[in-house]
Each structure stands twice: as structure tokens, then as C-alpha cells.
Design brief:
By secondary structure, the protein is α+β, with helices and mostly antiparallel strands. It contains 6 helices and 7 strands, in the order ααβββααββββαα. A hairpin with a 2-residue loop joins β2 and β3. It binds zinc ion (ZN). The site of zinc ion has 8 residues, from α5.
Length: 176
């Protein structure tokens, strides 16, 4: 028996092929073992990232009236949001038209600090990973289903609900 023998050559080729398949198989198993479960399922970190094609927004830093940096001592609670301004002089303008102030923030790529605590769909506590961006604010939900199936198609409606819900908690003090 020598290496020149065709039978030996065929046998060697067979053994090599088998060894290759075994190594490949082990490689695939190890690969499966190493890849973390989240990456394999392609699950949810998407929630904290912006939608494809949508610019990333940041929490408010700019006064919507003056364009100056905000002073956190001065804010208006409107539409379920805490809308900060640069100083006392801008409070009245935001009070008068909080929607316009929020739209200005949206144009700046910013969103207001939300006072929302419950999902407008289910009434359950919000999970801040699941939100829909809407005109200078984030509408938070409790889960991806509420976000995708309910709030995403009708953000204006749910923005109103959030505003109404927050208004119950942050009602202006009754004037005697
Ligand atoms: Zn939900």
C-alpha cells in the first residue's frame, strides 16, 4: 500500500472530507454557543435607537422662545411635558401656546422632559425603552405592542391622552 495506490488516495480523500465536516460542525455549534441570545433573536434594543431615517433627538437644552440655553428654574407644565425656558420672561409665551413651543423643540431636534407615568393604551406603568417621537415630545408606552399597534398610527390622539392624564396630577392650584 502506497500513497500512489488509487484506493489509498480515495480513502485519504474521504477521511479528509469527513474531518472537514466534523470541524465545520463543531465550529457552527461553538458559534451558536458564543452568540448571545439577544443578538440571535434580533430582539428589542431597537427601542432605544431612533427609527431608521429619523434623526436622533436629544432632551431639551434650548429655550424654544429665545434659542438660549435653558435655566432649569423656569419651566411650564403643558401637554404632559415640562418645557424649560431661559428665564422668567419667556414663561408667559410658553404658557399661552405649549404646542408651538414643543414644535419649536422638534425643529431643533429636541424633546421635552415628560411627566408621563402610565401607558396611554393600557394604563400600566411606562417603560421608557418604548416610545414614539411626536412633535417635541416622547409618548411612552408599557410595551412594544402598545407602541407599534396603537400609538405609532395615531400619535396625536395619544399625545392628547397623555396631556390629559398628566394634567390630573399636575393640576394648577385653584385660585381662591
Ligand atoms: Zn403595552
Amino acid at each position: 500500500m502506497t500513497l500512489q495506490d488509487p484506493k489509498v488516495k480515495a480513502l485519504l480523500a474521504g477521511v479528509l472530507a469527513l474531518a472537514f465536516l466534523v470541524i465545520l460542525g463543531v465550529g457552527v455549534s461553538i458559534g451558536r454557543f458564543i452568540v448571545p441570545p439577544a443578538a440571535r433573536q434580533g430582539a428589542e434594543p431597537a427601542a432605544t435607537q431612533s427609527e431608521p431615517g429619523q434623526p436622533r433627538t436629544m432632551l431639551q437644552t434650548t429655550c424654544p422662545i429665545t434659542g438660549l440655553p435653558i435655566d432649569r428654574r423656569f419651566f411650564v407644565v403643558g401637554k404632559g411635558q415640562r418645557i424649560y425656558v431661559a428665564g422668567r420672561d419667556q414663561l408667559a409665551a410658553v404658557q399661552q401656546d405649549p404646542e408651538a413651543a414643543l414644535r419649536k423643540l422638534a425643529a431643533l431636534g429636541q424633546y421635552a422632559e415628560s411627566l408621563q407615568t402610565v401607558c396611554p393604551v393600557s394604563g400600566a406603568p411606562i417603560n421608557r425603552a418604548y416610545y414614539v417621537e411626536y412633535e417635541g415630545r416622547r409618548i411612552y408606552t408599557c410595551c412594544p405592542a402598545c407602541r407599534d399597534n396603537r400609538v405609532k398610527p395615531e400619535p396625536a390622539k395619544y399625545a392628547q391622552q397623555v396631556a390629559a392624564e398628566v394634567a390630573k396630577t399636575f393640576a394648577p392650584a385653584a385660585t381662591p
